[in-house]
Amino acid sequence: MPQVHVYLPDDIVTEILVRLPGESVLRARAVSRSWRRITTDPAFIVAHARRRPLELIRRNRVRSARPPDRHPDGDDIAVNTIPVSGHDVAGRPRRLMRYPCSTKRTPGRSPHGLAVVSCDGVLLLKIGHGIYLICNPVTRQWAELPEVHSSSFVLEFGFYRHQPSGEHRLLCRCNNVLRPSIRSHGASACKHRGRGQGRRC
């Protein structure tokens, strides 16, 4: 019997995928290049986020049994959500992600995370002076941005998705320096740029 290939237009595939839970959308990315392109498109991500129920974000410090050499500040920090409607399974917060334990005290690091802003469903969390995490609650992925070294203050100006690279970047200003500093995940070093261009990490 000859194999039959069924073709679905991208708009139909998009309408189907946008109704799936986040975990299923992640698995669908592996089906084909076309589906990966659809599910990584910023418009799809925004449309998918709009369909999620309203939820409050809560940070929680998780204390667990740890080896004797573990510093007390090495507890895990979890980001949970509580549905605004209150209709969750057994009324308990649903765990979205866990941060790895830190094994040593880091100056300026706080166990209390502050959600600064979000962009396309990605959260920017400030966990200490010049120390930031970005996380995607749907994919349960997180990354630490390069540390902002500043002796006095760090002022966040913007958190955005850089279209050419697909990176999420943080624009900030440090120590009354007029040149801004740009932080992005995956970079290993900072580069000073000319006037008005700032620094990219």
TrEMBL record:
<protein>
    <recommendedName>
        <fullName>F-box domain-containing protein</fullName>
    </recommendedName>
</protein>
<dbReference type="InterPro" id="IPR036047">
    <property type="entry name" value="F-box-like_dom_sf"/>
</dbReference>
<feature type="domain" description="F-box">
    <location>
        <begin position="8"/>
        <end position="48"/>
    </location>
</feature>
<dbReference type="InterPro" id="IPR050796">
    <property type="entry name" value="SCF_F-box_component"/>
</dbReference>
<dbReference type="InterPro" id="IPR001810">
    <property type="entry name" value="F-box_dom"/>
</dbReference>
<dbReference type="Pfam" id="PF12937">
    <property type="entry name" value="F-box-like"/>
</dbReference>
